[in-house]
Amino acid sequence: MKTSFTYGLLLSVSLVLMQHCGSPPPGMPDVSYGSLRIMAMDTASIRSIYFDLDDVKYGKHPNPFVLDQVVAGTHKLLVYDERNSGSVTAVEVFRDRRTEIKVNLLAEGPYVGGVAPNFTVKSIDDQTLSLEAMKGKVVLLAFFEHT
């Protein structure tokens, strides 16, 4: 008799807990949603984009793209495409509103087999050096940071 009472009590407590499973705790506000319109600038050449929202990869989408049902709040966004890297930015999504974000993608490279971009620098003895002026010569570039 004692065993069936204990089993019945555990069963009723389990059923009560299961009814509230997945519900926000009392006093918590309901989750609200907005949407996010993501556009990489220079839409003529950037037809599709990839993006990560809060470190979740969303894959390839047309440029621009609207992501619906985004939880309202601040999110970490990274936008990129096949050839250009993006930068991480914080974006605020508001309840029942569309947030517009425009990003400029940075060219990453030069790529293997491609032409290095021209640049001009001052040498330590105040001479101006440009890559264009050294065309046809073997050039070794070493980049370092001095702190």
Q: What do these coordinates show?
A:
The chain is mostly beta strands and 147 residues long. It has a domain at 33-107: Immunoglobulin-like. The protein contains one helix and eleven strands. It has one helix at 2-19, and strands at residues 33-40, 48-53, 56-62, 65-71, 73-80, 84-85, 88-93, 98-103, 106-107, 120-122, 128-130. A four-stranded antiparallel beta sheet has the order 3-2-5-7, with no helix packed on it. Strands 4-1-8 form a three-stranded mixed beta sheet, with no helix packed on it. It has a two-stranded antiparallel sheet with strand order 6-9. Strand 2 and strand 3 form a beta hairpin. It is elongated and about 70 Å long. Mean pLDDT is 78; it is low at 5-11 and 13-18.
Give a short summary of the structure.
The chain is mainly beta and 147 residues long. It has 1 helix and 11 strands.
Task: Label this structure with key terms.
Immunoglobulin-like, 1 helix, 12% helix, mainly beta, 147 residues, single chain, 39% strand
Strand order of the largest sheet: 3-2-5-7
Biggest pleated-sheet summary: 4 strands, antiparallel
**Straight-line N-to-C gap:** 79 Å
Number of helices: 1
The fold-level CATH name of the domain at 33-107 is: Immunoglobulin-like
The rounded Rg comes to: 28 Å
Name the CATH superfamily classification of the domain at 33-107: Carboxypeptidase-like, regulatory domain
Query: Which overall shape is indicated by the principal axes computed on the Cα atoms?
Result: elongated
* Secondary structure: helix percent: 10-25%
Order of helices and strands: HEEEEEEEEEEE
Oligomer: single chain
